[in-house]
Write a structure and sequence with these properties.
Length: 489
């Protein structure tokens, strides 16, 4: 697990040797969901220094009880395997729906058995996804339990859980919010509302009744949820939810058909609702600084007007293949993720002008051959990755003027060429591409020549065989029959 998200839980699982089925064996920290950022040992030392009560045996005993279920769940998931990616899950759901729809048409025993096996495989994928989702929630709950236990220890009482105290002030509605709602009820609601930096902890459901609202800024607050009634803001064009405490967005956000700008950066989102793809008017989408591991499967098929996509500082491992259909996309920022590569058809993003793939570190090792089709690309940042060779088509990026390749173990182009800048790199890769084309043309010509020679040889052999056969018949003609011998005696 990530110590940045679960610092207490990471510390406890690392330091308590009695966890798990074998008390004498230290627990394995690098479970299937663990990605340590920085130095885990340094992080644990810092926690221990800041939390002296962790040395109290009573506190340790309480924490051991609090995380026992995590250890058990982890052992089960380790045996089952990694979490399937979002596109695989969606594909499994689609297959199950197709199997269910065509079940009545399957008559042959062999076909029924094949459909049954495929159904079982799809169900296994969905069940594994559900287990991982439950495990993620289990980690979050365990972290909260450990924090409560420690706070109890600081207060002089060690107990497993402490009842949450209700802060009466937190439930008070901001006066400005009340005024806005009153104006809306009287039919004079504003079309632009700025409630940023108000310390808001919740947004009243009545806010969805301001039907004439065009712009809403709720940034830099403490919102933990957005009500479903936000769908009532049918004319809304700009929504800023950045720097809050949101862990999810309502499914009803997909009903905002006129939304052009959506900013939800700096929250705690682990996923975007699939319904966000229905916001087909979106021109700019900023979901940076969250905990996303994937993007909705159909994002590229439906957000046809999207021009700017910011997904930096997340944990995205793969892009859905549909992202290649964002034909209007001008800017894509995906730095500081865990990208393992790009879809093969990435070159279809022919409108793209700015691309930032920096700092995906050990995960990003190569680019697809279609990369050279991004002919409108002007700015490219590939720094701090593990790219050994630029694609052979790289020289076709004629409009590229800004390029950063620092922190890559480049072999193609050679380091001395890379140090000379973008012009030298483009010249080198262009010449390399021409050499490859020339070599391919040469091979093609040789193949044609070989085929022609093979055809000539075949025709010549056939002619020689025919000629020899004719000569043989001429030199050894068949003797004429004697009519006398054929007479009957």
């Amino acid at each position: 697990m990530d110590p940045n998200r679960f610092p207490m839980l990471s510390y406890v699982l690392d330091r308590l040797p009695s966890l798990g089925s074998k008390p004498t064996t230290p627990p394995v920290v690098s479970d299937l969901m663990s990605i340590h950022i920085g130095d885990p040992a340094a992080a644990q030392s810092e926690i221990a220094d800041r939390m002296p009560h962790l040395s109290d045996p009573k506190v340790i005993a309480a924490m051991r009880r609090a995380v026992a279920d995590v250890a058990q769940a982890r052992s089960v998931l380790t045996a089952l395997g990694d979490r399937p990616d979002h596109e695989t899950v969606d594909s499994a759901k689609a297959k199950l729906a197709a199997i269910d729809a065509g079940r009545a048409d399957v008559a042959e025993t062999e076909q029924r058995e094949s459909a049954g096996r495929e159904e079982q495989e799809c169900m296994a994928i969905l069940q594994l996804e559900e287990l991982h989702v439950a495990y993620e929630k289990l980690l979050k709950d365990a972290e909260e339990r450990l924090v409560k236990i420690y706070r109890s220890a600081e207060a002089g009482v060690v107990e497993e859980e402490e009842e949450e105290k209700v802060d009466g002030v937190s439930d008070q509605v901001d006066e400005e919010v009340v005024q806005i709602l009153q104006q809306a009820s009287s039919g004079t609601g504003p079309d632009r509302v700025d409630l940023s930096d108000r310390g808001l902890r919740f947004l009243p459901e009545e806010f969805g009744r301001i039907s004439g609202l065009l712009q809403l800024d709720l940034s830099n607050n403490e919102l933990q949820a957005i009500p479903d009634t936000i769908a009532g803001l049918e004319k809304l064009e700009m929504l800023n939810l950045s720097t809050n405490l949101l862990e999810s967005l309502p499914e009803t956000i997909g009903l905002l058909q006129n939304l052009k700008l959506l900013t939800v950066s700096g929250n705690k989102l682990t996923a975007l609702p699939d319904s966000i793809c229905h916001c087909r008017s979106l021109v700019e989408l900023d979901v940076s600084f969250n905990q996303l591991t994937y993007l909705p499967t159909n994002i590229g098929y439906e957000l046809v007007n999207l021009q700017k996509l910011s997904v930096q500082l997340n944990k995205i491992r793969t892009f859905p293949t549909s992202i290649c259909e964002l034909r209007s996309l001008l800017s894509l920022d995906a730095h500081f993720n865990e990208l393992r590569g790009l879809p093969l058809a990435f070159g279809r993003l022919t409108s793209l002008q700015s691309l930032n793939l920096a700092s995906n570190f050990t995960d990003l090792t190569e680019l697809p051959d279609t990369f050279g089709d991004l002919t409108n690309l002007k700015e490219l940042d590939l720094s701090n990755n593990q790219v050994h060779a630029l694609p052979d088509t790289f020289g076709r990026l004629e409009n590229l003027v800004k390029l950063n390749l620092d922190g890559n173990p480049l072999v193609v182009p050679p380091p001395d060429v890379a140090q000379q800048g973008v012009k030298a790199i483009k010249v080198f890769m262009s010449n390399r591409w021409l050499e490859i084309l020339a070599e391919e043309e040469k091979k093609s010509m040789l193949q044609v020549q070989e085929q022609e020679e093979a055809g000539w040889l075949t025709r010549s052999t056939s002619w020689v065989k025919g000629y020899v056969s004719g000569v043989s018949e001429y030199l050894s003609p068949k003797a004429p029959e004697d009519p006398i011998l054929n007479q009957q005696l």
